[in-house]
């Protein structure tokens, strides 16, 4: 069976973008692939994390995976630092990837901002660790939101260069899976900005732990315009907020945008928002409740991570052994 790998950072509240762009697709792919889902704690520390907060966040992402429907008996669920093979392979990839490749990464530029000299070396080399996550399992497919596309292109470049340099057909050229109607969910306050954990405005995102009142309040306060909704997908010119809300509704309802517009085209926002609130509460409410329940049972969560870590390493260790041999490293 072909193998899926994907990861989510434990860096604060998980939101609707993480769910619709990634986690929901993780759940749906479980029957057709051999799946490895990772809480990427080594990626998280590329920027400062309070240790207790990090421990809590690792459990929270794990709870979200399970509450959303990932079956930890079938799929492998673990946190990255439980398997040292990620960091080992990342070092080899630090020696394969070129500075010029990393210099082109837009996410580093955004995250480092103006104070680039003060960014950690880890933040710069982050995409190499991400390639190592994927290729330590020779994963063939990686489900992600659109913002990770450039990192996955780098992963393909690294695999290709490794295979060429060593004359070995060793790593697969991994395919991204960017699926559904909400591959780039935007902020509820500004339709030109991505919904993000780091946005200072709490009204900009719906968190997976939000209850019905918070969900309703955030959707009611979501920025819109005064025109009725268009009936055609071409009718969103200059209306990014309207387009975003339609995309969210389509994804939550499992419909495509055309079908949604034929249902709600011509409606005013007040009416459409009432529908969106009902749908969001219906889909997200049970997930939030189940997350709270699981977070009350940290022994269970920790046992999932420890079992997943051992299963993950059983796959990656023989791959790393072969790789060390190809490179000429003895161990
Ligand atoms: P992270 O933790 O920022 O996000 C986790 C997943 O959520 C998706 N996502 C979104 N999708 C749609 N709309 C949004 N507004 C939105 N925000 C986030 C992301 O695309 C991602 O799929 N570098 C990765 C984590 C990672 C990884 C990997 C992913 C580390 N190693 C290996 C895949 C394979 C990241 O920071 O995701």
Describe the structure.
By secondary structure, this protein is mostly helical. It has 2 domains: 3-182 and 298-327, 3-Layer(aba) Sandwich (Rossmann fold), CATH 3.40.50.620; 202-293, Orthogonal Bundle (Tyrosyl-Transfer RNA Synthetase). It has 13 helices and 5 strands. It has helices at residues 16-29, 41-44, 51-68, 85-94, 99-103, 106-112, 121-135, 149-165, 212-220, 240-253, 257-264, 269-295, 298-327, and strands spanning 3-8, 34-39, 76-79, 141-143, 175-177. It has a 3-stranded parallel sheet. It is globular, with a radius of gyration of 21 Å. The two termini are 30 Å apart. The relative contact order is 0.15. The mean pLDDT is 97. It binds tryptophanyl-5'AMP.
In brief:
By secondary structure, this protein is mainly alpha-helical.
Question: Helix and strand layout, with pairings?
Answer:
Elements: E1 3-8, H1 16-29, E2 34-39, H2 41-44, H3 51-68, E3 76-79, H4 85-94, H5 99-103, H6 106-112, H7 121-135, E4 141-143, H8 149-165, E5 175-177, H9 212-220, H10 240-253, H11 257-264, H12 269-295, H13 298-327
Parallel strand pairs: 1-2, 2-3, 4-5
Shape: globular
Roughly how many Å is the radius of gyration?
A: 21 Å
Largest sheet: 3 strands, parallel
Oligomer: single chain
Strand % is 5-15%
Key traits:
331 residues; mainly alpha; Rossmann fold; Tyrosyl-Transfer RNA Synthetase; 2 domains; 3-stranded parallel sheet; two-stranded parallel ribbon; globular; binds tryptophanyl-5'AMP
């Amino acid at each position: 069976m072909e193998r899926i790998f994907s990861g989510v950072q434990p860096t604060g509240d998980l939101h609707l973008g993480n769910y619709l762009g990634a986690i929901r697709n993780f759940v749906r792919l479980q029957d057709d692939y051999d799946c490895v889902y990772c809480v990427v704690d080594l990626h998280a520390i590329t920027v400062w994390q309070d240790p207790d907060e990090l421990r809590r966040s690792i459990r929270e992402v794990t709870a979200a995976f399970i509450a959303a429907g990932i079956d930890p008996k079938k799929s492998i669920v673990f946190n990255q630092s439980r398997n040292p093979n990620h960091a080992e392979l990342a070092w080899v990839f630090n020696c394969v990837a070129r500075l010029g490749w990393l210099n082109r990464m837009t996410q580093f530029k955004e995250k480092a901002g103006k104070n680039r000299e003060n960014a950690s070396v880890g933040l710069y080399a982050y995409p190499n660790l991400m390639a190592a996550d994927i290729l330590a399992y020779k994963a063939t497919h990686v489900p992600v939101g659109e913002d990770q596309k450039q990192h996955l292109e780098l992963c393909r470049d690294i695999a290709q260069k490794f295979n060429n340099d060593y004359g070995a057909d060793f790593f697969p050229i991994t395919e991204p899976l960017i699926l559904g109607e909400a591959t780039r969910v935007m902020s509820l306050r500004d339709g030109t900005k991505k919904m993000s954990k780091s946005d200072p405005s709490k009204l900009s995102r719906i968190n997976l732990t939000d209850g019905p009142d918070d969900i309703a309040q955030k959707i009611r306060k979501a920025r819109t315009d005064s025109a009725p909704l268009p009936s055609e997908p071409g009718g969103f010119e200059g209306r990014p907020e309207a387009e975003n809300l339609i995309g969210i509704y389509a994804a939550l309802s499992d419909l495509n945008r055309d079908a949604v517009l034929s249902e709600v085209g011509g409606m005013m926002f007040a009416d459409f928002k009432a529908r969106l609130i009902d749908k969001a509460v219906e889909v997200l409410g049970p997930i939030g409740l189940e997350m709270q329940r699981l977070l009350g049972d940290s022994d269970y969560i920790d046992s999932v991570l420890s079992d997943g870590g051992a299963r993950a390493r059983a796959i990656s260790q023989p791959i790393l052994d072969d790789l060390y041999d190809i490179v000429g490293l003895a161990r």
